[in-house]
Structure of Molybdopterin-dependent oxidoreductase:
Amino acid sequence: MSSDAATAANATSTSLPRIDALSGGPGGGPDQDLEQPRMGLGSSLPAADSRAKTEGTFPYAADLWAEGLLWAAVLRSPHPHARILSIDTSGAEEMPGVRAVVTHEDVPGESNYGRHVVDRPVFASDLVRHHGEAIAAVAADHPDTARLAAAAIAVRYEVLEPVTDPEKAFAAEPLHPDGNLIRHIPLRYGDAEATGEVVVEGLYRIGRQDPAPIGAEAGLAVPRPDGGVEIYTASTDPHTDRDLIAACFGLEPDRVKVVVTGVPGATGDREDPGFQIPLGLLALRTGCPVKLAASREESFLGHTHRHPTLLRYRHHADAEGRLVKVEAQILLDAGAYADASSESLAAAVAFACGPYVVPHAFIEGWAVRTNNPPSGHVRGEGAMQVCAAYEGQMDKLAAKLGIDPAELRLRNTLSTGDILPTGQTVTCPAPVAELLRAVRDHPLPALPKDAPEDDWLLPGGPEGAGEPGAVRRGVGYGLGMVHMLGAEGTDEVSTATVRVHDGVATVICAAVETGQGFTTLARQIVQETLGVEEVHVAAVDTDQPPAGPATHGRHTWVSGGAVERAAKMVRTQLLQPLAHKFGMSTELLQIADGKITSYDGVLSTTVTEAMDGKELWATAQCRPHPTEPLDEAGQGDAFVGLAFCAVRAVVDVDIELGSIRVVEMAVAQDVGRVLNPAQLAIRIEAGITQGIGAALTENLRTAKGLIRHPDLTGYALPTALDAPDIRIVKLVEERDVVAPFGAKPASAVPVVTAPAAVASAVRSATGRPVNRLPIRPQAAVATAPKG
């Protein structure tokens, strides 16, 4: 397979059916019709690949094929902690159809890799540090042969006692040459001696949520005649992956090419290089294309998860409920390797007080290694865990003071010009109080009727509930915040090229479409700027300039900004000859619906006529203003910008059985500017649903470091039947002046906020503290009498 073939398979183009209102699931979208343009920014332009995806014809990595294809399988450790005494590959090598077996001894370059910290071995050599760690890989002429050969590799282990309690990691023997402590952040803000008239304390535990991608990891490695290799995979950060892979292969980066195939959705790091590196090694060893399609079990064992977190909080407030001081200890379980733990900890510590004004804050944060599964990027990392805890504290304060929970929050909300506990001034729009009032004032849903035909409305579904009289309704609130782009000095930059010829525009940018809608946005930007209706977005590979990872709303801001700048440069090239001919400035010309007109009506022509067969193109970069690392006291301007969300959850709880039904989620969000109404509604609804999963069902359970039930039977994802009515009651469009288009990221902050709101509603229904996510049935059982 060639990169040209991949490009042809994955390039996107546009047709323009009109959508006149926000779409969504039950109750999805703001409850009003919107006048929208036919194309460009503000239109509900559908994704070009939506039909192919719904019909099952979209080319994912698992669908790739090449002549002479071999199949790969990876041998993984059955132990969370063990010393490797010997590895005997002879049994696998002697099997008919086996073409190659590789272990740590066959890695020609760097033996370790890591996107943030280079501490993870390609193959374990002396120690196994987590269940599922890669030991060896096999290439064979049939997938079953490859799996049987991997199982035939004989590994002798000395099983060691795993360290699975992150609190014990501080005193445990080092699990890694770099030690067990990955990072410690002590945040100091204000007066340590300050106290409040009312004090509440809480201990909170957040479980291990898995990204659970729709399609498991897959890829194809093809050797090149120059001794290099091409990797076809669903990478979300291809240039970083290329550099890591090249280092492990001992090759220069230009001899490794990563081609991005169709990504079936991503809510974190979609593709760990640990799946790609064995593929490339086997391709280089055999001289043949090699394909890997991971099983669901391998996917659970191989990729990173959300950090399980232990949080201790103490809130001080005055008699009126205004916050005086917040004290917290936050402990992130990083698992065996560092990955993104440092960045996740920074977000957790910085946002530990939530979107509230806190005069004094003293936070201690740690990320430690254990023998649990590795943790990494998952939407809203760090921010989601602390949101569940600080909102639990706000509910406790409201109960102790006898103040309505929404009113208590309103007395403390953050706004533009306030200062975060990191010392950074909030310069972006921060309409937190407006968001909270919007969800508070939205009408509550009707109560279900006590009739047999409405049994499906009760917790547990038909015949799943006990007596209807045992069902209690609760209403709870959550306020959340996330940062945009990278943090603490990350150099954010993206490059894009826009080319126009024969009435067709092409966008070349290495920003990966992961479901966040970048390719649709790029088309809208070009349509808006150049008036060209047909826009293609080229497939992504590492021959293009880098655009960075698809996290924290980066591509809307940085890559979208690069596309806009390149399109404006092409616009200038297009308009300058006309402006010169008519003796006017290009600023006096406008492009709309494919036509160029002047302010006075003297000039009127089409874009196609103005192009006159010429090809115009331009390349541009976008780089936001710099940030800085947090200092030894947790202070610093670490974030480019912030986004906020308010959620009101309504739940029904069977207080005898502990079963929970989420009835409705009312959402108000700070979006900066609506760029695609339908797509925005879908992103918010998806984020809310993922947050409900974290609140009620999703927890990758382990027993002494061993993952229990690594499959979609044991790991319960919310389905369409679990999704409640999601009411987007308000979208605040107060543009962030430093962001291109003024827009903010949309999907992470609902994930952060929804679990806290659901837990708050369960507290309201049961009177129980609810200090663990996901919520266990026993935590929702109340002792209140029926009535």
User: Anything to note?
Assistant: Confidence is low (pLDDT under 50) at residues 1-34. Residues 265 and 514 are 5 Å apart (CA to CA). The two ends are 68 Å apart (CA to CA).
